[in-house]
Batch of 2 targets.
Target 1
Amino acid sequence: MPEIFGNLRVNKEDRFCIIVSRFHSHITFEMLRGAKEFLKRCGAEEEQIDVFIVPGSLEIVSAFSFLKDKFPKRYNACLVIGAVIEGETEHHTHVARESIKNVIEIAREREIPLGMAIITLSDTLQGIERSGGKLGNRGESAAATMLELLRLKDKIKEL
């Protein structure tokens, strides 16, 4: 069997949903900027990308569920962006785990390619380094993952 993989090409009929947490916006909005710029470099037009802003990473799960219920066929793929920074209690562990686990579950149940950019951090500096700093932009890399998975899904349908 040949090796089959997705590519990083945006088709005219593609429609993307990006859900981004406002909490730690100095990090998440930079990841959003990186994701949108990446999709545009791959051929996306501004009107192909809808952005929904939620208060925090836990609310990403609800927004994703609302969108998939309201518009089950509108979006070809979804990208989620959040930043969870370690605090004095274990709260950050629960927020990160539940957000990531439930977003993955929704994407898997509804067979939608997902770009995961809910990042867990020890401190703000790590977030700055991962949102356009010296360690790249996690929003951009998650957008690439989402797009490649979307194209792979298309190829698998053709088999």
Target 2
Amino acid sequence: MTRKLTDWINAPAQLMAKLPEDVIALITRFGVAAIFFSSARTKVDGLLHISDGTYVLFEQEYALPLIPPHAAAVAATVSEHLFSILLVLGLFTRYSALAFLGMTAVIEIFVYPDAWPTHLSWAGLLIYLIGRGGGAYSLDRRLGLI
């Protein structure tokens, strides 16, 4: 390849390499939070009342082993709301991401094993946050948390 062609091909990558990692962390936190918060909102009526349909969903479609459906519905709904908010704030980012990674694994293994491409993309974002934290624009950083 000629030098001009490789320069042209590499230009977008060089431009993106200048994007601060803290901005990437912020975007990643908000993106993951949006995924799980949207899911949480489908499980409730009003502010935080878990809908009857959610309980039916956990009883009939999800049918997780080892945990009663009612408890699973409550745990999933509360977790999706709580950890999404924490991710947006950048508070306890690594632990929130770890909780979502666990939820993703449960969903992948027991509920929708064929949805692995979606779950793998979530896992990639979550592993980034677990490994790197919330970045400079997070409460973790302001509070001196790693």
